[in-house]
What does this fold into?
Amino acid sequence: MTTPKRHILAGAFGAAAILATALPAVAQQRPAQQPAAPAAQAQPAPAAQPQQQATAPSGSTIDAIRARGTLVCGVTTGLAGFAAPNSQGVWAGFDVDYCKAVAIALFNDANRVRYVPTTAQNRFTALQSGEVDMLARNTTWTLSRDTSLGFDFGGINFFDGQGFMVKRALNVQNARQLDGATVCVQPGTTTEQNLADWARGARIQIRPVVIERLEDNVAAYIAGRCDAYTTDVSGLASTRAVQQNPNDHVILPDVISKEPLGPLVRHGDQRFADLVRWVHFGLVAAEEFGVTSQNVQEMAQNDPRPEVQRMLGRTGGLGQMLGVDNLWMINIIRTLGNYGEMFERNLTPIGLQRGPNALWTTPGGLQYAPPFR
Ligand SMILES: N[C@@H](CCC(=O)N[C@@H](CS)C(=O)NCC(=O)O)C(=O)O
It folds into this structure.
């Protein structure tokens, strides 16, 4: 395999020890508990450049979804833990659960979703053109995406940051030691831009190897065409977890950017944007209130807290204000659980810890929902 041109010095600390401070925290020694399906079983549409402005199909997205009977949700081509077909070919993961949650709010049926695999490059065109109703696809909220690309983000469902993965055998301890290295990266991402910004700021030379498809990127990294692979730390953890020997790969401690990930919709339909946003807040609030898939019915009957009663649709008519059934949150939680349950089911198995994605009531936690009133 190619090695970085310049001399690689061993760091003072082991990567695993330093990694505890990375954002989000990744349990390095923890093997994947549940091997995920291989990436990219479905063929994505050919890459296209996003338009500068979204040409939103006119009319209410909620009405269109209801008339169609299915939510069309743009996901990745396959990223274990977030969105990937399982051994039965059924899409599963944290982002998939967000698609399901919106479908439950609209239809009380988690199966009323059609999943459209998108690459980093063609995801925005898919949303702008109306091919999908929403994206639930590890997409970073940035100013230009929020404005000139014409999208609305429904909150931050995963606080992330960009990192690097290298083969352990390379004995690289930190990202600065990648001076002169080749780095595999996907186009159409914040990742590609951050890599250039970071290298310039750090005054080091990086040779990007830009490959569109995720599976081809990973294959190039594994084959040694790149010394390192860079993406969101969550994506690195996911990719690492499905390798034959996850321990042969190290996620470096450096986090070079903020990557606030969340679901997004087109500009021009605030009602649908509100729904997606409050589905996310509902999941977070449910965790804060201790409402789980196991106790939701019982809490709806007996919990004395007025806000819990409002969230669960017993009083206040909040669901109706969003254009859905007042029992929307009961239906979502009983099927999918709260934010914490979704995290544990999908992301704990790929070695991700809560870190900044813990509730705001926990030290270091940032997940916070506005009031249900
Ligand atoms: N968060 C970054 C990167 C998102 C991204 O697309 N990451 C890649 C690498 S983890 C990915 O998900 N690829 C999946 C695919 O192309 O199917 C962004 O929004 O630009």
